[in-house]
């Protein structure tokens, strides 16, 4: 793998921050070290002294005065060591990445903590994508991805997909448009493999294998954005791209937003060490690091639980969302049969509805839905070209009660009938 060819000029030009390097060196040094180098504020001047956080199932997460001083101070840009160590062990257990034990320094797996997986997504795209580059993805897709890509001046190339995600034959057809020797051929493929936002689509294991082989053939990096990995309703879970990665061409984003807290903003980037290092350099120059307090709180919780306790918590989250999904499906069958088409999502939080006889749901939602006191997201906002009409809407089953979902779909059915 020649990672240099994938980097933008801006990313390749990034240099380590000397101050950040000294800060991180000091944190690994013995207590006897006397440092006059760090420009950190003195935590004795901070007003916060201690904290105790109650946990639903398990021991409290607590910060005494010593721990609180650390929690309120600067920390390493790649993440605090105990959280990284815990997560690397979890990645090994769940995905067993071939490159993690390959012994090849150039492709060896590494990881960093990000302020939510959205920060990781933005920094990965800015590292890999420049003006005029072609980026492959399945459309419709997550608007946050489009928001990260469109200012970069790249060409966003849509690959056909269905309820099982990106179609390998369609990807091969798109890739065949470029000569293999063309230096401007696509370098990056982006996908949400499980419970995709907005469609709820999940790639099958067979499709992932075929897509990975195409990535090898055309020398692509795959950005595996997987925030709904822990919200897969059926076992066994499909293998990830990371678990297939014999070359070191997968950059994976994980998130705790859907399973621990969205407000804590904890995400992870896992991938080849040379690329993760570039992401960390960008973090050094922008946010410096994810909140130390947040990292320590999550780390203490995870260590209290252990991996088995964490996965037991995941089982409870899955069961909640499975019931929510089933309730929405029941209401859809009750009220929208003949008025819309959909498929049952096997992961995530969303139901993707195609409304019968409605050319553009934007007008329906923006102008008329509020009158009926029901709100969904019009499909156009998930399209590469948001000005194009879409007959789809996205419904989320994460927050509403089954009774609210039922009433919402009754109102939506009335709205559709009025427009027919």
Account of the 3D structure:
- With 420 residues, the chain is α/β, with parallel strands linked by helices.
- It has 2 domains: 76-293, Aspartate Aminotransferase, domain 2 (3-Layer(aba) Sandwich); 315-419, Aspartate Aminotransferase, domain 1 (Alpha-Beta Complex).
- The chain is built from 13 helices and 15 strands.
- The chain has helices spanning 9-12, 18-27, 65-71, 81-95, 116-128, 143-149, 168-175, 205-217, 241-244, 273-285, 292-336, 361-369, 402-419; strands spanning 51-53, 61-63, 109-115, 134-138, 155-159, 161-162, 165-166, 188-191, 221-225, 250-255, 266-272, 340-341, 350-355, 377-378, 392-396.
- It has a 7-stranded mixed β-sheet, sandwiched between helices. It has a 4-stranded antiparallel β-sheet with strand order 12-13-15-14, with helices on one face. It has a two-stranded antiparallel ribbon with strand order 1-2.
- Helix 5 (116-128) runs parallel beside helix 6 and helix 5 crosses helix 10 (273-285).
- The radius of gyration is 23 Å and the shape is globular.
- The termini are far apart.
- The model has no long low-confidence stretch (mean pLDDT 93).
